[in-house]
Amino acid sequence: MNVILRQAISADVPEIVAMLADDILGSRRENPAEPAPYLAAFERIAADPNQLLLVGERESRVVGTLQLSILHGLSRRGSSRALIEAVRVAAAERGAGLGSELIRQAVAEARRRGCVLVQLTSDAARTDAHRFYERLGFRATHVGFKLAL
Q: Is residue 53 a contact partner of residue 61, using CB atoms and an 8 Å limit?
């Protein structure tokens, strides 16, 4: 695969945001031309030990990303769980296994941190993503809800 997986640095933010904006849903909610809110968010993520922003890099270009958040709770006997968010692979890199490797790395990190499960949400319109997650062993066991603020 010839891709290096590593923790993101602030210099990666423009390429990450470009990937977030490069689809039908992200194009409506992301604005790569205004980096300030993304850089501020990156600083909050980087300062939080319960967050990991992971990137895949090929030939000095960021070509994939995801965010792993560790959630501590009282349910499941006080266990921790991991939440995977914002999984993206650059369009030219899709189908080569990078997304699977990012997810495997995130699951391994969640296990290393003592989590009892890994969960994620995916927009109902992303049927290809649903098949991808099912191939990796995830099951659609819950219904998710959102409230815009």
A: no
Cross-strand partners of 115: 80
Specify the pLDDT at position 1: 63
- The pTM assigned to this predicted structure is 0.92
Distance CA 131, CA 108 (A): 21
Q: Cα(67)–Cα(78) distance, rounded to whole angstroms?
A: 23
Task: For 115-138, give the DSSP string.
Answer: EEEEEE---TT-HHHHHHHHHTT-
DSSP for 57-99, written as a single string: EETTEEEEEEEEEEEE-SHHHH-EEEEEEEEEE-GGGTTSSHH
Give the separation between CA 45 and CA 90, rounded to whole angstroms.
Answer: 22
